[in-house]
Amino acid sequence: MNAASLLFSFLKSETAYAHCDIPCGIYDPNQAQLGAHTVLRMTQLFEEHKDSIHDVARIVRVKEKHGDLVEEALGTLENDYFKPEHYETFPELTDLLAAAVKLSITARQKVDMATAEELLEKVLLISEIFYKTKNVTPIRVPSVYPTKGEFVTYHE
Amino acid sequence: MILRKFTVSGHSMQPYLQEGDHVLSLNFLRVRKGDVIVFKQDNKYLIKRIKKIAGKEYLLAGDNKKDSLEIKPIQKNDIIGKVVFKF
After folding, report:
1. Which among B24, B43, B47 has CB closest to A18?
2. Beta bridge partners of B3
3. Interface predicted TM-score of the whole assembly (ipTM), two decimals
C-alpha cells in the first residue's frame, strides 16, 4: 500500500467506469456464445490436425483470438450491461462471470476439451440469465455448428 | 459528499488513468474544458474528460481513442466531482 492509499483509506471506494460505450442499450450474449463455440471447435480441430505444424499454428491463432473475444464480450456484459439489481436477482452471476473469464484464459493456455466445453457451458448459463433480465424466456437449442454444442436463444 | 474516492474500471482514459487506479474527486470546484470528471449516468458512475461545454451541456470523451467514443452530453447536476488526484 502506498502513502496515498494509506492516507485516503478512510474513504469508501466506489467504481467509476471508463468504458467505451455510447449507452446504446444494444447488448447481446451471442458474441460470447459464438466465441466459445469457436474455441471448442478449434480444440476439436487441433486433435485432428496435430501432425501439421502449419495447421496447428492457424488453429491456435484462431483459438487465441476467439478466447479473447469471449473475454471481451463477457467484460462488456459485466461492466456495461449487468446492473446491481441483476446481481441481486441472480447471485450466482458474479461467480459465473469470473469462472467463464478464467476458463477463457485457460482455454487459450491449453488445448483441453474439458476446459473448452466448460467454457461454453458457463457462457450458456450467463446467456440464460441475460435473457431472463430482459423478461423473455431463454431456451437452449442444438447449435447448427460442428461443435454439436447448444446455443441459447429466447422466446417472448 | 464533498470528497469521494473512486476506483477506475476500463481503458478509455488511458494513458492518463489505468484500470485499477484510484482517484479523488471534489464536488465544489468549477469544471472546465479539459478536466476529468466523475459523473452519474444510468445509475453508474462514469469517468471521462470534458471536451466542450456548450451552454448547459457538457460534451465528454475518453482519452483513449481506440477504446472510447463520445457519449451523450450530460448536465451540470449529473457531475459528481472533478478529479483532483490520482494514485
Report:
1. B47
2. B26
3. 0.84
Chain B residues lying within 8 Å of A22, measured CB to CB: 69-72
Cα A47 to its chain centre, rounded Å, is: 24
User: pLDDT exceeding 70 applies to what percent of chain B?
Assistant: 93
Q: Residue A79: what are its φ and ψ, rounded to 5°?
A: -90, -30
In tens, the pLDDT along A130-152 reads 999 999 999 999 999 999 999 99
Q: CA A4, CA A99: separation in Å to the nearest integer?
A: 33
At B68 the three-state DSSP class reads coil
Q: Which residues of B touch A81 (CB under 8 A)?
A: none
CB B42 within 8 A of CB B20: no
Q: Which 3 state secondary structure label does DSSP give A75?
A: helix
What is residue B3's three-state secondary structure? strand
Which amino acid would we find at residue B71? Answer: I
Q: For residue B17, which phi and psi values (nearest 5 degrees)? A: -125, 135
Backbone angles phi, psi at B21, to 5 degrees: -65, 155
Q: Which residues of A touch B62 (CB under 8 A)?
A: 18, 20
